[in-house]
């Protein structure tokens, strides 16, 4: 009988352990402003040891030295996995205190923001402090009139031109980086050729890729004045005549003018970059990229290219257009006010005037602060300077709580158009029908 | 086949003991006694069953609960059957289902047939050759899907090995993973050309256990090798075939890693499969409720298929 | 008689041809992993592709011609990406983690599953069949179903971001219980009865009689478990957040830095992660085969 009791209590203990383990919150709440802060960061530019996290590490060391009792733990996350890891962490209610997130990008869902996962930071900034930020950068971190993060950089998409190929073919690069659609097509045709005389084209004028969350191709679709959603974000407008004409023109690069390779419009981002920048290939003369690529083909030994920055071709509107984005840090839900203050202080510390200047010179982004811009980060970098001029034409991606789903549908149909499987009109209309179910929620 | 019959009935000892305890009428006491009597059995089982409960049973039940909820971070709402409705009215579910069907319908029969043919060809060979081919066909199976998918993606690359081989025969390069017409075919092709190592080994084992006397008899009757194969080998391999078809179907319905690593469901939705859809609902859109509902529907479909195959192929086979 | 012989020989030759061609197709992808891994950095993307890496073609001739420097130079260039993996990137740590996780999980599974398999195969107790079928029926459930609850669970248990989070969940896999039960059913019950009559305790019976007799099945289960843990990808990717905790496949995935795909580096990593499994397979081939046939037969 005793043994039975023993056995039963063993079973009971097991059940208890399982149940208790399951319901006890694992998060330990920091007692006061002395304690541990968890910061996520993604790879930045490398130092001499090829460490791409050295920037954040040095920031942490400096901050810790100035704040005894505060310990900052760095979690290194690759960009490609940041969104997923963050979302998984949110689902498990185990988020970091601070992470590099663009709230209008796919990494965080506005739905989660609405549910209170991200702390609004309005109370931590004075009017004067806010005045130092470019309005566009603040805009990107503002949702329903609250500021949900500290902008630390801005980016823009621009066309990169391999000048060696231009020279090889005797093609004049566009003057001051401006070209109309017709000029663009003409140059692309000249840049497409058979380099080794085997009867097959091996160098192409233009290429890019299409994938959810990537917008390198979108300025082409906007060149005649189309936008994906209406101003209020409630209606799909990418089926307008301007959108259809622009997409038809874009697809004609591949199917009518034959200036793009078979992979154009696929989802191989890495392959696309290699085709442009890998010295072994260099089989595409012109590709659009976000501004980080400028730093890569300028500073990285492996990919150094003789290049220039140009605008997207000008369409019916007579004005070039591009897609802009912004980067920065968001503070996640805090249960301790004092800790929150320290976290915000650190967030400010890593995105002050000097740090944003360093980002601009080393990392290939534009400062979100006017004061950093005034320090002249691009004095010796004409490419970045040229790209920064494009900020004025930058359009941002719509902020809609279901944007990831809408984006996925649109991009899926775009892929089919660039495979020659669907007409521009059919695709954009179908995308609209599929997007509609996510707009009316 | 290695089953030993005529064991001592282990209940015998126990049943005699039970006679003494008949008087106790409270059922709970009876249960306690039972547990006490078999305490070692339960103790032996306890560790495994504990981890099973925590890491499989609990999550499974939890997933079922989730499928009736809308998961939100701070409070979760019961939504009844809404998630299941959303599964069947969603724009991608039928595409994913159709792709998964096509994949399964081509891959499973091909793999089983290839395994059967290869095993039949290997079987008459000498021991050394048998060992060699068995190893060659099984080897790719031990490497992870990540590695296999990585290298296939590299071979399917526009500058990859396959297009080079095509160019040797004068065929134009194919946009393997990039075009809707080819993407699913490419993934299917990879599955078929990755040899069915498991199938080959199982068929060989089954062929090895067919009594030689049956073949003797056939030979005396003057049957040629093909007739023998058709009349004797094939029918006797039926249990193995059934096993491979059922297992293959379950596996194919869950095809995922290849899709994620090679096409991510594209272009368009040409290669979205059911599990890829579940993965996307769960870890891209973070609709855990919807994802759980999709997973449960998938489970149902797999069960139905396995059941049909069992009924269809399992005419005179005991399992 | 003679024509029949020719016919038989013809059949045999044809059989060999088919088998060999298919073996080449089967092994091609693996061959291509290793070839790409060993190609010189500037050869990886070359057209036409180098079917035989330069180092294989040139090293020995150059060495024999006395041009040792050139030979060694080619050798060192060929292993450049392997070197990069081992020195610049945390590959040794990932490798160590993979070994640690796979070995621990395998030992754990061997113990738990042999104990459970033993009572399921050889004991009669209330609820036995019920418990067994509950466990076995979960084998049909796609792993993705439990991914989300598992993640929340691991977070609540406080083992996220430690290697326990990748060691413990595999311990729950039920295939091994099934396998051990199938095998242990073939152990004559008389042996157990005899031990009991000799007064051996239950544990001693298990440890001294059942375990030694089950060695082949244990070896099989051990290898299959090792393989599945070594190759597992999605779960570690989700729960391990720190690069020093990564297992090999997760580390490989992070190598695939989206914007700078480097096939030479990727294939070197793939090769390094594949080599241990290939070695294990070649050495323990018969256990793989045994495991498959055991799992596939009737019970």
Characterization of this structure:
The complex is a heterotrimer of chains A (441), B (319) and C (299). With 441 residues, chain A is an alpha/beta fold. Chain A contains 18 helices and eleven strands. About 3% of the residues of chain A have low confidence. By secondary structure, chain B is an all-alpha fold. Chain B has two domains: 57 residues, no CATH class; 227 residues, MetI-like (MetI-like fold). In chain B, helix 4 packs across helix 16, helix 5 runs parallel beside helix 9 and helix 15 runs antiparallel to helix 16. Chain B starts with 10 loop residues before the first helix and ends in a 6-residue tail after the last helix. The N terminus of chain B is likely disordered. Chain C folds into two domains: 83 residues, no CATH class; 207 residues, MetI-like (MetI-like fold), CATH 1.10.3720.10. The longest helix of chain C has 37 residues. The radius of gyration of chain C is 25 Å and the shape is globular.
CATH architecture of the largest domain in chain A, by name, is 3-Layer(aba) Sandwich
Task: Let me know the largest β-sheet of chain A.
Answer: 7 strands, mixed
Helix content of chain A: 40-55%
Helix and strand content put the structural class of chain C at: mainly alpha
The dominant shape of chain C is globular
| Major beta-sheet overview of chain C | none
Query: What fraction of residues of chain C sit in β-strands?
Result: under 5%
From the 3D structure, determine the CATH topology of the largest domain in chain C. MetI-like fold
Corresponding CATH superfamily of the largest domain in chain C: MetI-like
- What class do helices, strands and sheet pairing of chain A give? alpha/beta
When the domains of chain C are counted, the total is 2
Q: Name the poorly predicted regions of chain C.
A: none
- CATH architectural grouping of the largest domain in chain C: Orthogonal Bundle
- The tally of domains of chain A stands at 2
By CATH, the topology of the largest domain in chain A is D-Maltodextrin-Binding Protein, domain 2
């Amino acid at each position: 009988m005793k043994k039975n009791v023993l056995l039963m209590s063993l079973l009971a203990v097991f059940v208890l352990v399982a149940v208790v383990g399951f319901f006890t919150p694992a998060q330990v709440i920091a007692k006061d402003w002395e304690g541990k802060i968890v910061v996520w960061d993604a790879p930045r530019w490398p130092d001499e040891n090829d460490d791409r996290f050295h920037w954040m590490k040095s920031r942490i060391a400096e901050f810790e030295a100035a704040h005894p009792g505060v310990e900052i733990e760095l979690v290194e996350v690759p960009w490609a996995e940041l969104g997923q890891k963050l979302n998984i962490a949110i689902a498990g209610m185990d988020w970091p205190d601070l992470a590099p997130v663009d709230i209008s990008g796919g990494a965080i869902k506005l739905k989660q923001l609405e549910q209170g996962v991200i702390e609004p930071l309005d109370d931590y900034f004075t009017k004067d402090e806010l005045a130092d930020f470019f309005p566009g950068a603040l805009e990107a971190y503002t949702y329903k009139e609250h500021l949900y993060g500290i902008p630390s950089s801005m980016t823009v998409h621009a066309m990169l031109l391999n000048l060696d190929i231009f020279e090889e073919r005797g093609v004049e690069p566009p003057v001051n980086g401006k070209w109309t659609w017709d000029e663009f097509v003409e140059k692309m045709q000249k840049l497409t050729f058979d380099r080794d005389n085997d009867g097959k084209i091996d160098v192409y004028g233009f290429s890019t890729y299409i994938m959810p969350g990537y917008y390198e191709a979108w300025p082409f679709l906007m060149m005649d004045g189309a936008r994906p959603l209406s101003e209020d974000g409630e209606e799909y407008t990418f089926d307008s005549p301007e959108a259809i004409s622009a997409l038809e023109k874009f697809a004609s690069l591949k199917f009518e003018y034959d200036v793009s390779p078979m992979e154009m419009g696929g989802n191989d981002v890495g392959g696309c970059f290699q085709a442009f920048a890998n010295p072994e290939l260099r089989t595409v003369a012109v590709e659009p990229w976000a501004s980080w690529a400028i730093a890569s083909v300028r500073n990285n030994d492996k990919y150094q290219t003789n290049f220039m920055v140009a605008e997207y071709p000008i369409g019916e509107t007579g004005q070039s257009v591009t897609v802009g984005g912004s980067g920065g840090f968001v503070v996640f839900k805090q249960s301790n006010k004092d800790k929150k203050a320290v976290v915000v202080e650190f967030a400010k510390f890593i995105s002050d005037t000097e740090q944003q200047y360093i980002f601009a010179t080393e990392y290939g982004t534009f400062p979100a602060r006017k004061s950093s811009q005034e320090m002249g980060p691009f004095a010796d970098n004409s490419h970045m300077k040229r790209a920064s001029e494009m900020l004025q034409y930058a359009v941002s991606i719509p902020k809609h709580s279901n944007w990831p789903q809408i984006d996925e549908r649109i991009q899926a149909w775009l892929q089919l158009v660039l495979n020659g499987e669907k007409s521009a009109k059919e695709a954009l209309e179908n995308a609209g029908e599929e997007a509609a179910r996510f707009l009316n929620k | 086949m290695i089953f030993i019959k005529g064991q001592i009935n282990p209940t015998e000892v126990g049943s005699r003991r039970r006679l003494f305890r008949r008087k106790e009428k409270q059922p709970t006491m009876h249960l306690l006694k039972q547990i006490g009597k078999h305490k070692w059995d339960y103790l032996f089982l306890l560790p495994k069953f504990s981890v099973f409960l925590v890491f499989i049973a609990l999550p499974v039940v939890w997933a079922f609960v989730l499928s009736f909820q809308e998961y939100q971070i701070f409070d979760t709402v019961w939504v009844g059957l809404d998630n299941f409705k959303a599964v069947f009215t969603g724009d991608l579910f039928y595409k994913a289902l159709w792709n998964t069907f096509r994949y399964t319908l081509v891959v499973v029969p091909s793999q089983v047939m290839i395994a059967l043919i290869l095993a039949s060809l290997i079987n008459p060979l000498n021991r050394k050759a048998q060992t060699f081919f068995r190893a060659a066909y099984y080897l790719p199976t031990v490497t992870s899907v990540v590695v296999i998918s990585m290298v296939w993606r590299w071979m399917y690359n526009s500058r990859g090995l396959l297009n080079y081989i095509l160019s040797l025969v004068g065929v134009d390069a194919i946009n393997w993973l990039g075009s809707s017409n080819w993407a699913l075919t490419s993934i299917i092709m990879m599955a078929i050309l990755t040899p069915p190592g498991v199938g080959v080994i199982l068929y060989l084992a089954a062929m090895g256990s067919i009594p030689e006397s049956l073949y003797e008899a056939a030979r005396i009757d003057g049957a040629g090798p093909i007739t023998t194969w058709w009349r004797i080998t094939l029918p006797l391999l039926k249990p193995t075939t059934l096993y491979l078809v059922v297992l293959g179907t379950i596996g194919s319905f869950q095809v995922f890693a290849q899709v994620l690593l090679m096409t991510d469901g594209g272009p368009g939705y040409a290669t979205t499969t059911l599990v890829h859809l579940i993965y996307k609902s769960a870890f891209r859109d973070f609709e855990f409720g919807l994802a759980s509902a999709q997973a449960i529907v998938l489970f149902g479909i797999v069960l139905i298929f396995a059941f049909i195959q069992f009924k269809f192929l399992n005419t005179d086979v005991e399992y | 008689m003679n024509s029949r012989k020719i016919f038989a020989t013809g059949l045999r030759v044809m059989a060999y041809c088919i088998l060999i061609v298919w073996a080449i197709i089967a092994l091609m992808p693996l061959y291509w992993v290793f070839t790409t891994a060993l190609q010189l950095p500037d050869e990886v993307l070359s057209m036409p592709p180098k079917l035989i890496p330069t180092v294989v073609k040139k090293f020995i001739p150059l060495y024999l011609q006395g041009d040792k420097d050139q030979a060694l130079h080619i050798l060192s260039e060929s292993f450049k990406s392997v070197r990069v993996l081992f020195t610049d990137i945390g590959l040794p740590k990932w490798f160590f983690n993979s070994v640690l996780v796979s070995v621990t999980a395998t030992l754990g599974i061997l113990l738990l599953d042999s104990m459970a398999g033993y009572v399921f195969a050889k004991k009669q107790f209330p609820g036995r069949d019920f418990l067994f079928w509950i466990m076995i029926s979960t084998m049909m459930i796609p792993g993705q179903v439990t991914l989300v609850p598992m993640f929340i669970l691991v977070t609540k248990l406080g083992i996220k971001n430690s290697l326990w989070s990748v060691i413990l969940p595999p311990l729950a896999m039920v295939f091994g219980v099934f396998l051990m039960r199938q095998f242990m059913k073939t152990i004559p019950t008389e042996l157990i009865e005899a031990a009991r009559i000799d007064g051996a305790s239950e544990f001693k019976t298990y440890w001294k009689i059942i375990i030694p007799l089950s060695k082949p099945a244990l070896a099989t289960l051990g290898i299959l478990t090792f393989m599945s843990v070594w190759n597992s990808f999605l779960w570690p990717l989700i729960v391990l957040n720190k690069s020093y905790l990564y297992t090999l496949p997760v580390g490989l995935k992070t190598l695939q830095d989206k914007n700078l795909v480097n096939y030479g580096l990727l294939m070197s990593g793939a090769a390094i992660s594949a080599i241990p499994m290939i070695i294990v397979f070649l050495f323990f081939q018969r256990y793989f085969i045994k495991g498959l046939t055991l799992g596939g037969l009737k019970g």
